[in-house]
Amino acid sequence: MSNLEKAVEIIAEARRTAPRVRDMQDHVSPHIAQALADAGLLAPDLPTPTMTPESHPGWAQWHREEWDSEPPEAVWQTPGKDEWWISYSKEYGLYGGWTEFPEEALEGLNPEDMKAIAGVFLAAANYAEEKNQ
For the stretch 8-36, what's the b/e string if a residue is b when 16 or more beta carbons lie within 10 angstroms of its beta carbon? Predict the structure, then answer.
């Protein structure tokens, strides 16, 4: 069963089982949203940037001096021993990397590590899309 089919079933069930009240729409919507979340059909919240020039002025100054350019507007980092990062700047767009060599960075990753990496990349992509609209 696809996620769409599961969502249709869950919404139908939530509408059937929600307590009856005068303003049905306002009451059923949270019930449906919670049912979808309980079924794992809602995407997790994406991470916010780990660093910005405002949140880390020392890093921003180091970047200006070391690289002779403005620091990225936002940097997202994954937690853990094999830290992945992706940055966005008006000058370069999206760019990223990891603290280890690629073959080492991919060793021993578990599902939570992969979700963290995916979240970082999706959050950065969404940020870049918003900035370029």
Answer: eebbeebeeebeeeeeeeeebeebbeebb
